[in-house]
Amino acid sequence: MMDPLKDAVCILETIGARNGGSVVPPPEWRSRFMMTPIQDLLHRIQWDPSFADADFEISYHDRVEERLIRVPMTRVRFDKDTGFAFELFDHDGAVHMIPLHRVREVYKDGKCIWSRNA
Fold it and tell me: What are the chain's domains?
């Protein structure tokens, strides 16, 4: 049985080997085989009113508790000068900086729309 994803990876590896390791997939593969960067998704939530008309939650890996923490976007703030993290306001009003690489899932109206493994 053919596996399109496996075939695409094989083709990309072949192209990369021929080009000294530089792999640039064709644009038509992006939507099918490549993950949207978390920064792009979070910017869309911030700036696209038709998409953002929903309840969003972010799930991130907490290093202290060693588990995923799911919080509503209403408790999150993005600083325009910090492109690698967001500020999270906890129930006591304390502010925590959460690096974007620790984001594991994004939910829209309770449905997971973005996910990545650690």
Answer: 1-34 (no CATH), 35-115 (2.30.30)
Q: How confident is the model at residue 43 (pLDDT cuts 50, 70, 90)?
A: confident
Contact (CB, 8 A) for 44 and 82: no
For the cut 70, the answer to whether the pLDDT of residue 27 exceeds it is no
The tens digit of pLDDT for each residue in 107-117 reads 999 999 999 87
**Rounded (5°) CA angle 88-49-38:** 45
**Cα(91)–Cα(23) distance, rounded to whole angstroms?**
45
Distance CA 107, CA 56 (A): 5
Stated pTM of the model? 0.68
